[in-house]
């Protein structure tokens, strides 16, 4: 899987066996678990006080959901990378977590490598969605205009190619993967990315994903 040494982690899950398994997985990959919590309120307190690099939270916990913990921590300026690890594949749950400020949404029945793929991806400034969910169209964006017309479309300023790149970026693809799909070079993808970010007034990929979520530019019922 590849080690991620020097990273500090807090684990939050109401099932001890899950926390023990995650702690062992983290230790085997050079990460240090500095705190654990078994419910929402203690998770929030532990993360706020210990200030880990990453926190991995269950979505459904006693006292407070993982999404609500993340929402409150973000409102208090928490800079930790906050990741949801859940059994739920419901589109509404995924979007709730992302709108709250989660940096990643992972599935408990996914392979362990997804956790470390997510950590590396998030470290690079990305927002990671389990590939098991991306394949189901979680981040497939509706590109058609609404009945109100283009004047109400916040991405109407983008060219058709920029719109395609925007869609794939929000879907979690890297530049090299987008290049293959669009049959262009990764450098050209970077040019389109820089241009569309300038037009939309966003600075990075995290900002781009949040832009899409906040403006309901995601579609959960169809796939590309």
Topology diagram in text:
Elements: E1 8-12, H1 16-28, E2 32-37, H2 40-50, E3 54-57, H3 66-75, E4 81-86, H4 91-100, E5 104-107, H5 112-123, E6 128-129, H6 131-134, H7 160-170, H8 175-182, H9 186-200, H10 205-214
Parallel strand pairs: 1-2, 1-3, 3-4, 4-5, 5-6
Helix pairs in contact: 2-3, 3-4, 7-9, 8-9
Structure description:
The chain is of the alpha/beta class and 224 residues long. 46% of the residues lie in helices and 12% in strands. It contains ten helices and six strands; from the N terminus they run βαβαβαβαβαβααααα. The protein has a six-stranded parallel beta sheet, sandwiched between helices. Helix 5 links the parallel strand 5 and strand 6. Helix 2 runs parallel beside helix 3, helix 3 runs parallel beside helix 4 and helix 7 crosses helix 9. It starts with 7 loop residues before the first strand and ends in a 10-residue tail after the last helix.
Structural class: alpha/beta
- Quote the beta fraction: 5-15%
H-E string: EHEHEHEHEHEHHHHH
| Secondary structure: helix percent | 40-55%
What's the short version?
This protein has 224 residues and is α/β, with parallel strands linked by helices. Helices cover 46% and strands 12% of the residues.
């Amino acid at each position: 899987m590849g080690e991620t040494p020097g990273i500090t982690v807090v684990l939050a899950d109401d099932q001890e066996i899950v926390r023990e398994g995650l702690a062992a997985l983290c230790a085997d990959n050079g990460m240090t678990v500095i705190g654990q919590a078994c419910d929402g309120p203690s998770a929030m307190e532990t993360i706020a006080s210990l200030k880990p690099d990453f926190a991995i939270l269950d979505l459904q916990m006693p006292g407070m959901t993982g999404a609500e913990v993340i929402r409150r921590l973000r409102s208090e300026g928490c800079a930790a990378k906050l990741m949801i690890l859940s059994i739920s594949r419901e589109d509404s749950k995924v979007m709730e977590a992302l709108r709250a400020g989660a940096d990643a949404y992972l599935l408990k029945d996914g392979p362990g490598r997804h956790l470390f793929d997510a950590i590396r991806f998030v470290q690079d400034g990305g927002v990671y969605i389990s590939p098991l969910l991306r394949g189901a169209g979680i981040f497939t964006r509706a590109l058609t205009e609404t009945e109100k017309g283009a004047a109400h479309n916040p991405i109407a300023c983008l060219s058709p190619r920029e719109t395609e790149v925007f869609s794939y970026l929000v879907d979690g693809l890297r530049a090299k993967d987008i290049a293959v799909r669009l049959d262009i070079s990764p450098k050209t993808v970077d040019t389109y990315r820089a241009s569309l970010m300038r037009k939309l007034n966003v600075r990075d990929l995290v900002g781009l994903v949040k832009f899409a979520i906040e403006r309901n530019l995601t579609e959960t019922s169809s796939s590309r």
